[in-house]
Amino acid sequence: MSNExxxxxxxxxxxxxxxxxxxxxxxxxxxxxxxxKDIASGxxxxxxxxxxxxxxxxxxxxxxGDAIAITVRLVVFFGYPFTKLAEEVRAAVAEAVDAQIxxxxxxxxxxxxxxxxxxx
Length: 120
Hints:
Blueprint: E1 4-7, E2 10-13, H1 14-26, E3 31-34, H2 39-47, E4 58-63, E5 67-77, H3 82-100, E6 104-116
Parallel strand pairs: 5-6
Antiparallel strand pairs: 1-2, 3-5, 4-5
Helix pairs in contact: 1-3
């Protein structure tokens, strides 16, 4: 599997797409982090028996030669309705991809992989 997406006559590294998607998603209120991308998750996994995430935090593929399909995995804060949060993440990611890469977004799947409770 290549680390580059060939889309709209150009090559874009999947890590570049991942960086753009992660930055956009993490700006949405209620998102703690992109799953497995934060330093704290890595340290906790090393010091405990909690397994490291097996799936990529951001997955992307080319659809119909000129559009991109994205899956983003998130850690979210308790208290934010999932459907509303997912819709806000989709809007932020679509806007960021359009602004930075300039390609059509075919779909954005939001996976909530972990829930963080506030300390009281």
